[in-house]
Design a protein that fits this description.
Elements lengths: L2 H8 L3 H9 L7 E2 L6 E2 L4 H13 L4 H7 L4 H52 L4 H4 L3 H18 L7 E5 L10 H4 L7 E8 L19 E8 L1 H4 L2 H15 L6 E8 L6 E7 L6
Helix pairs in contact: 5-7, 5-10, 7-10
Length: about 280
């Protein structure tokens, strides 16, 4: 019978049969070499029923191919195995549903703790000697940091981030990522070494390119490192304040100096590596 007649017998669309032929699930008994017409035999309708039901049950094409020539007892065992698989997956989803609210609460608490820790650090910090900014300017930066963490609770912005690490802080698999100075995705645009205060050089590199992604890397003495959170957030806040209309992504990484000198590098992500 023709493909249209066989489709009518099976209660399906001819396109379904063409698809089964294409993926080698149900080949026609004959294909006319001149016209390309497909011809099927009535007995193939049994194979169609088997394929259709296995497919509806969620079996993959490869799984169906392995079962297509099996008898009914094997097919029933396959259905039982699939049912057990779906039940297990359902239990996993139910467990995820139950833990969802707990995990959301936990992460909100962690955000709150980080916010309070940074706020406390910034309240105790005097930025004038290091950055040369007024109390009013620092208050504005503090407010921006507070708003940033308030927004995190609802969505996670990606325009600013801060990382502190020491020799033993970073997991081994993350060291290559944190070693930005040797990361081929970034190029060096500014560096300063042996400085005493950020205000001595920061005007030289505070102009950001619109749409660019920057990474700031500091290696500083122990005194500055003691206020790492306030230090990092202050410098990021100054950069954002001086480039208010620009789209920019900023990160700041701080480590302790190994030679007693203060070091700073500004890197920009290469555009050919941008997503």
């Amino acid at each position: 019978m023709t493909i249209k007649e066989f489709a009518r017998l099976c209660g399906c669309n001819p396109q379904t049969l063409r698809y089964y032929d294409h993926v080698d699930l149900l080949k026609p008994m004959k294909v006319d070499p001149w016209s390309g017409y497909r011809y099927y035999e009535e007995e193939q309708a049994l194979a169609f029923v088997k394929i259709k039901n296995l497919q509806k049950a969620g079996f993959t094409i490869e799984e169906i191919k392995a079962l297509i020539d099996q008898d009914n007892p094997v097919i029933y065992k396959a259905f039982e195995a699939k049912i057990a698989e779906v039940k297990n997956r359902l239990q996993e989803i139910e467990a995820i549903q139950k833990s969802y609210q707990t995990e959301m609460y936990t992460i909100q608490e962690k955000i709150r703790e980080v916010k309070e820790k940074i706020a406390r650090s910034m309240r105790e910090y005097d930025p004038y000697e290091e950055f040369g900014i007024t109390p009013e300017e620092y208050a504005a930066i503090f407010d921006n940091v507070q708003r940033f963490f308030e927004n995190v609770a609802e969505s996670i912005p990606k325009d600013i981030s801060y990382t502190e690490f020491g020799d033993d802080d970073a997991p081994e698999e993350e060291r290559e990522y944190l070693d930005l100075l040797n990361n081929p995705n970034y190029r060096l645009v500014y560096e300063k070494h042996g400085w005493e205060h950020v205000k001595d050089f920061f005007d030289e590199c505070c102009e950001l390119e619109d749409g660019a992604e920057y990474a700031l890397v500091f290696e500083v003495d122990g005194e500055k490192k003691a206020y790492n959170q306030a230090f990092g957030n202050t410098i990021l806040g100054i950069l954002l304040a001086r480039n208010p209309e620009k789209k920019r992504s900023l990160s700041c990484t701080m480590g302790e100096t190994k030679d007693g000198q203060n070091h700073f590098w500004m890197l920009k992500k290469r555009t050919e590596f941008s997503a």
